[in-house]
Amino acid sequence: MDEVAIDRTLGACEQQLQAGETPDLRALGFWRAVAAVKRRRDLVDRYASRVAAIDRQSFRRRVRLTFPIGVGIVLVVGGLLVDLLFLAVASGAQHPWREILVLVGAGGLDIATHGPAHLVVGALVGIRFTDWFIDLAAKRPPGFKTDYASYLRASPRARAWMHAAGAIVTKLTPFLVVPYALAIDTDAWAVGVLLVVGVGQLVSDIVYSTKKSDWKKYSREMRLARSR
User: Does pTM surpass 0.85?
Assistant: First the structure.
């Protein structure tokens, strides 16, 4: 896609937004235009802010439950602290409450660490975030919305590791809780559940995430990094 086609595509998206509509970005060719922009640094400098404005406006019209980034950080950190509290209290609880608290705490951490991992790695490589959101239609956990201008200006390799961060932390969490569970004498069945969940997530990554989620995005950006 050349610059004329990019301008035409972005213009079509902007027209629909100005008309109060929620554009179908994929159908309009927006993501093909974004892919073309990514390949050339001069195009990133020229189009990053424009692409980000379209992406942000479309996102906020499509996803109704969006909140300021600060609200999301407070809620996520609060959730992490509650999950850690469950694990801490488990050490003094009687069976089977010990096992229940360990599993609840581990499950909470498994969910709550995903978004912050993206956030922390993104911040380290210069990628900013604009919103914390709950996308009920997509049936996925709450997350942080990237600022696409800073996303495009980051290197492809940096973008790749930002995408990978959430998947890596989520997959490690059950296995990291296992030594603690063993140390506090958690029953074997609960430890087994943690291991099954951990292995299940790894299998899910191989079957699903490499095709549709974080690892797909990681692979896409790494291919771009290697092509430069």
Answer: yes
